[in-house]
Amino acid sequence: MSALDLELRVPSRRLDASLRLDAGQTLALMGPNGAGKSTLAAALTGTLPGQRHAVQGRLTLGDRVLLDSVRGVRVPTHRRGVGLMAQTPLLFPHLDAVGNVAFGRRGLGERRTTARRAARRWLDRVGAGEFAQARPWQLSGGQAQTVALARALAAEPELLVLDEPLNALDVTAASRMRAVLRELLADQTAILVTHEILDALTLADRTAILHDGRVVAAGPTRELFTRPPNVFAARLAGLNLVQRDGESLAFRAADVVVSAGEPDATAAVRFPVRVLSLEPRGEHALLRGAGAEGIAAGVELHAEVDVQLASGLDTAPGAPLWFGVPAAGLREY
Amino acid sequence: MLGVALLGLAFILVPLLATALRVDWAHFVPLVTDPAALEALGLSLRTAGLSTLVCLLLGVPLAAVLSRAEFPGKRLMRSLVLLPLVVPPVVGGLALLYAFGRFGLLGAPLHALGVEISFSTTAVVLAQAFVSLPYLVLSVEGSLSTTEAGYERVAATLGASPAATWWRVTLPLALPGLLSGTVLAFARCLGEFGATLTFAGNLEGVTRTLPLDIYLVRETDPDSAAALALLLVAVAVLVVGAAHGPWLKPRIRGNAV
């Protein structure tokens, strides 16, 4: 198994990122739209359209140098051993599902029958064995995407790049796909581009956050989101963020204490808010409010409240309430 | 609207119908199985087949470059490729003569080497290929351009070399356009007259294809001309039928995402 080590720059897209990944691990690549996630993914596979010379830096996979712009090394896509699973399945329409999955096996030099046998095994592993003979247009989005996963894995890539693979799927299909990925990515060196923290938490050992083309935070996924090291990670983790004197205050919805009157001294910070909505979440409810005045004016804040407590408060939209946060729940960046 | 459409259809059908009515049906079979006619038909089919092959060998790479590569002058190149479509065939034949004739640009050195092209069967093939090439290029290029380039990118990430991608992905996806382009080019070759007459002449058994034969016998034997004309119409109908047959319909569709 191989380790990934990259230091890539794509000046035309303002990407300048460095990352490392141990063999067999999965790295989630997160960040807002336009942060450079897909550019980085395409730079890894060598498929940046029309920009072949725009990628600079160094990229090594295991003991192979795939890119070294200083020494003029630029391994073409088909010899990189970097697989790709994109947002859309892009199954070859002239081949059935087995033919699609066998495509990369034929490239490995396998004979047709051997390749198709291996392809069937991969289809079974992703739970798409029953679609073996199906043509791409006969498959639903979720089915097609699982076939695309089997196809990418069957080519035995040293590194698999997954570019928002669940994006085009409905909730049920995405959940099934997540389960399949969880199992199959266990020993696969992989980079998963996603904007869903859930994908990162369930699938990725490590997470890197891109912002404006740079890696602004990286670390073990759980650690990154339970103790966000900076405001970028905090924002992705869904924490409330309020600016105060040039720094950012972050706190969890669960740490917010809601009251009708102004909170007492146990609250380190307090915000008058107007209710936006109350959304049931089982035994709890998510109370969304907009800061009414002070440093949180206009900022949307979330509080997790007990249903019992919520029933004792006026939570009609527009109603005035107070959000208080104890010192222990506050993080400052 | 419908009336005008029917008028348009009639415009095409009436002359064909008139041909069928003009034919002396009692003698149809002897007329079209006349040895000279059969020889002309055989020559037509053989040369059209060869010319289509030439079109494929030259046209597919042309179409691939026009649809995939990016370079300055690409629009100009496309216009040039389409030129034989708009140049009168007689002019095309003359141009070929100036290039490959005994005293032509390339013909003179070839003649010195003992290679004679003009007024030979080779000249028939060149004339047909010259006028038919644009049909094939247009059709294949259209088919390649509508194919999502993403498929080729995916093939590369699956380890397929550019050559393997071409054979296993690009070409199969462009197959409908390739087939219809081939059939169109073949049909155009079969009907070629002007360039052939100018460049290859009208030598029985060597360059006298069916259209040339029809033109020749028209003066001396109108019955034979009508019968042969109908024969050519029948072959054309078969070819067009093949080009629009159900097997070329969307067997290949986009992904249902």
UniProtKB/TrEMBL annotation, chain A:
Superkingdom per UniProt: Bacteria
Residue ranges occupied by any ABC transporter domain in the UniProt entry: 1-237
Example GO molecular function: ATP binding
Pfam families from the UniProt entry: ABC_tran
Keywords: ATP-binding, Nucleotide-binding, Transport
Coiled coil region boundaries: none
Protein name as it appears in the record: ATP-binding cassette domain-containing protein
Lineage summary: Bacteria, Bacillati, Actinomycetota, Actinomycetes, Micrococcales
TrEMBL record, chain B:
Main location: membrane
PROSITE patterns (alphabetical): ABC_TM1
Ranges of residues in domain ABC transmembrane type-1: 41-243
Record's bilayer topology term: Multi-pass membrane protein
Keywords: Cell membrane, Membrane, Molybdenum, Sulfate transport, Transmembrane, Transmembrane helix, Transport
Transmembrane segments: 44-67, 79-100, 112-138, 225-243
Location of the protein in the cell: Cell membrane; Membrane
UniProt keyword Cell membrane, yes or no: yes
The keyword Transport is assigned to this record: yes
Function according to Swiss-Prot or TrEMBL: Part of the binding-protein-dependent transport system for molybdenum; probably responsible for the translocation of the substrate across the membrane. Part of the ABC transporter complex CysAWTP (TC 3.A.1.6.1) involved in sulfate/thiosulfate import. Probably responsible for the translocation of the substrate across the membrane.
Entry's family note: Belongs to the binding-protein-dependent transport system permease family. CysTW subfamily.
Quaternary structure (record): The complex is composed of two ATP-binding proteins (CysA), two transmembrane proteins (CysT and CysW) and a solute-binding protein (CysP).
PANTHER family with a match to the protein in the record: SULFATE TRANSPORT SYSTEM PERMEASE PROTEIN, SULFATE TRANSPORT SYSTEM PERMEASE PROTEIN CYST
Protein name as it appears in the record: Molybdenum transport system permease
